[in-house]
Recover the amino acids of this structure.
């Protein structure tokens, strides 16, 4: 039965029918609008008439709600494929075994549901303009070019950058009021995550003043357990291991690659028994993994050059497919995409595993932040933005998003046990399963690893697979550190190092290569010479 | 409603084109030059220029791009010339159809073509990452070949048959006819073919990304600087690339002009 659930889950992610249906709907709506609008336009260009016709249509739509006349427009930007878009089939309904036997079914898109919920709860009509971005840098460039968004969801280093540049609007005090029933975020966020958001600071201000988490995870290695042992995959060094030349992929961005390089560089220090047993090990790892002095960067450059020689590819997306099709044996991956890769491979009965290096791992977040320019002191807008974060943090919506995206939400559920029930629904073994083990997830859900309420009985292989990737156990989180946002000078040094790594290094050419190049040049010159002197060569005698 | 008859003078007709040239050629170039010679805070500096030429890695990438572009252009030329010659001169009954077959891959989206090529190369080589340079040249040749064939085909098709006959009548062997008449007369085609393949081969880094060549060429270097919001260094490298292309165009253009003069003298 468990595999059946799995297949359903995988099916959803591949199912593009909903989007097609949406497209058809959009086209029909567009055609109708096109057919209707030109009619008033024929009246010698009376713009006022068109405007009144359009607004009349809008107010007609809202008669159902208790509209108070004001209307808020909320401009949101999120990652692609990073929110539930609804249109689930009936048989996709998730029947949870929580106290109330909740059934989760995404009928409409999350955005539509939010607009309806907001109108019903606050009596204010909100119009969400939802757009997506592909990389943090794309988003940042868009923010630089114009005032386009009110609420965005970048990764932690990008919101740290935005905080440092004083471009974010702090979350209101009301948002942190745990008494308010509607404040799903603060009531439901995992204590573990909340602590990280409270203690990590930039320019003396904690993240939590500006940012509310959305999804989170670790970084590690997806590997093929038939070719690579767990022990090998559990060290950053595998990414530079000549034994696996052309068999590993590395992330094509400087931060992730630099982190891996530092992991290799500091392996001895990080695995030193004394270091491992020290009481402030986590702080020390954070210090080691955030070094940016010239010496460290230079040493990392050498390691990265070695990794470049060794790797199959630097990838930002293709690694998942190359892993599933068996082109590579190991893949440096974020835990969310690791789950996706493992799911995909499972369809072909190909079993992969996920390991988090023994030395340390980079814990990452995507979080909601409000733009100062966008909100612009508009209290109604800020309220809507914060309500959106809360709506996304409502336990049933968390499950919908997690099911659709496959990543792990920062929300543990608070009073509600729906999210834990969902984890159990995904990974709990069937009662007749033979080879099972107890997997405690209390560290995330209640802050206490030995909490008997949060132990999933899963099939044994889940210790290295999706469950492990989605809810890392305590020992992984005890070596999971945040990679800080570096200041201008250090950033520039690391970026320059990255350019050096990726450029062509003339020093790597052997004398054979030089000989080949020399021969090529000679042949080319000879050809040109023959062409220029053709009159002498082919002159008829 | 009856349209009034409006007449434009020649000068007035030029205005939209002049505006276009100003907005989309002159102005962007001026912006690039401005960024290339200033630092982050807008002060004049030569640091961007110096840092490019004082770093062995970036110079290495310039050389690497030049070598890749030269190899791709040469391979394209060697494949395309015989093809274009046969299509244009040998009186094939289905010449245009055959030409179309060569051009047709261009109508298919290039990411699809490259993905297919990637799979084929994987089967042939076992592991793509072992021959990044070779793979890049193969992929780029595959992609740019039509741009080399088309101009060659057009020039060879327009070749005046009587000149070739005259050369044979005056006693030139086939080799002499080819090297002394056909080849010089097809120089314009060769040169436009070279400019159409050499230039993109230095900058089209999407192909490198897709074929898993993790070494930067000039295009990827520019992209990487823009990615980290370093418009100044990115613009400087664009400018350097621009200069390199200008030099190459000047050289080939000059060769062509000399050639034209020579040909005049011979005829």
């Amino acid at each position: 039965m468990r595999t059946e659930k799995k297949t359903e889950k995988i099916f959803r992610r591949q199912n593009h029918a909903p989007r097609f249906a949406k497209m058809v709907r959009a086209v029909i709506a567009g055609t109708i609008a096109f057919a209707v609008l030109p009619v008033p336009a024929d009246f010698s260009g009376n713009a006022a008439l068109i405007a009144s016709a359009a607004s009349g249509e809008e107010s007609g739509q809202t008669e159902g709600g208790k509209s108070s006349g004001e209307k808020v427009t909320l401009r949101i930007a999120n990652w692609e494929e990073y929110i539930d878009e609804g249109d689930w089939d009936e048989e996709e309904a998730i029947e949870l075994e929580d106290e109330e036997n909740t059934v989760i079914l995404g009928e409409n898109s999350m955005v539509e549901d939010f607009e309806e919920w907001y109108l019903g709860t606050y009596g204010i009509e909100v119009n969400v303009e939802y757009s997506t971005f592909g990389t943090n840098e794309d988003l940042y460039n868009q923010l630089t070019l114009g005032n386009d968004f009110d609420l965005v969801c970048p990764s932690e280093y990008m919101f740290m950058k935005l905080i440092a540049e004083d471009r974010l609007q702090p979350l209101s005090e009301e948002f942190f009021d745990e008494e308010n029933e509607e404040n799903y975020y603060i009531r439901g966020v995992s204590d573990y995550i909340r602590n990280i958001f409270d203690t990590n600071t930039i320019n003396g201000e904690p993240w939590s003043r500006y940012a509310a988490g959305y999804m989170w995870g670790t970084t590690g290695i997806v590997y093929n357990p038939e070719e690579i042992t767990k022990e090998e995959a559990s060290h950053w060094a595998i990414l530079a291991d000549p034994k696996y030349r052309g068999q590993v992929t590395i992330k094509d961005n400087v931060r992730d690659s630099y982190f891996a390089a530092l992991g290799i560089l500091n392996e001895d220090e990080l695995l030193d028994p004394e270091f491992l047993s020290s009481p402030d090990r986590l702080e020390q790892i954070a210090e080691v993994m955030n070094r940016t002095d010239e010496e460290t960067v230079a040493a990392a450059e050498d390691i990265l050059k070695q990794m470049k020689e060794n790797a199959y590819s630097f990838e930002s997306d293709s690694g998942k497919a190359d892993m599933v099709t068996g082109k590579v044996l190991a893949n440096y991956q974020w835990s969310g995409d690791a789950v996706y890769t493992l799911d995909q491979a499972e369809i072909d009965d190909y079993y992969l595993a996920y390991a988090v290096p023994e030395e340390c791992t980079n814990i990452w977040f995507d979080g909601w932040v409000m733009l100062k320019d966008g909100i612009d002191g508009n209290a109604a807008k800020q309220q809507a933005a914060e309500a959106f974060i809360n709506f996304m943090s409502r336990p049933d919506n968390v499950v919908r998003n997690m099911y659709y995206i496959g990543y792990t939400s920062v929300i543990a559920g608070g009073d509600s046990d729906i999210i834990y029930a969902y984890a159990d629904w995904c990974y709990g073994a069937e009662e007749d399963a033979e080879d099972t083990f107890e997997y405690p997830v209390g560290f995330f859900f209640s802050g206490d690893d030995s909490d008997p309420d949060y132990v999933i009985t899963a099939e044994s292989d889940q210790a290295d697979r999706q469950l492990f990737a989605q809810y890392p156990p305590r020992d992984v989180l005890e070596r999971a550190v945040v990679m800080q946002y570096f200041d201008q000078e250090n950033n520039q040094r690391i970026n320059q190092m990255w350019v050096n790594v990726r450029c062509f290094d003339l020093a790597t050419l052997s004398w054979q290569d030089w000989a080949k190049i020399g021969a090529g040049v000679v042949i080319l010159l000879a050809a040109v010479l023959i062409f220029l002197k053709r009159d002498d060569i082919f002159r008829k005698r | 409603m009856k349209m009034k008859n409006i007449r434009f003078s020649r000068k007035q007709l030029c205005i939209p084109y002049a505006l276009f040239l100003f907005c989309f050629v002159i102005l962007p170039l001026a912006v690039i030059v401005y960024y290339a010679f200033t630092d982050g805070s807008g002060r004049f500096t030569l640091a961007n220029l110096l840092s490019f030429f004082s770093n062995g890695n970036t110079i290495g990438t310039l050389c690497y791009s030049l070598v890749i572009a030269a190899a791709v252009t040469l391979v394209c030329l060697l494949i395309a010339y015989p093809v274009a010659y046969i299509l244009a001169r040998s009186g094939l009954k289905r010449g245009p159809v055959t030409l179309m077959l060569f051009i047709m891959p261009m109508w298919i989206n290039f990411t699809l073509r490259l993905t297919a090529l990637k799979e084929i190369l994987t089967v042939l080589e076992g592991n793509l990452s072992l021959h990044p340079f070779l793979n890049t040249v193969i992929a780029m040749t595959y992609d740019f070949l039509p741009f080399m064939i088309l101009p060659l085909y057009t020039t060879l098709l327009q070749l005046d048959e009587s000149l070739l006959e005259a050369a044979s009548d005056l006693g030139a062997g086939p080799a002499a006819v080819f090297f002394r008449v056909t080849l010089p007369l097809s120089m314009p085609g060769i040169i436009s073919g070279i400019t159409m393949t050499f230039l993109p081969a230095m900058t089209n880094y999407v192909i490198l990304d897709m074929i898993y060549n993790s070494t930067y060429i000039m295009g990827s270097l520019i992209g990487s600087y823009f990615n980290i919001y370093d418009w100044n260094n990115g613009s400087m490298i664009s400018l350097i690339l621009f200069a390199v292309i200008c030099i190459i165009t000047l050289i080939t253009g000059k060769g062509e002009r000399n050639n034209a003069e020579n040909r005049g003298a011979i005829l």
In short: Chain A touches chain B through 36 residues (CB under 8 Å). The domain at 219-362+478-501 of chain A is CATH 3.40.190.10 (D-Maltodextrin-Binding Protein; domain 2).
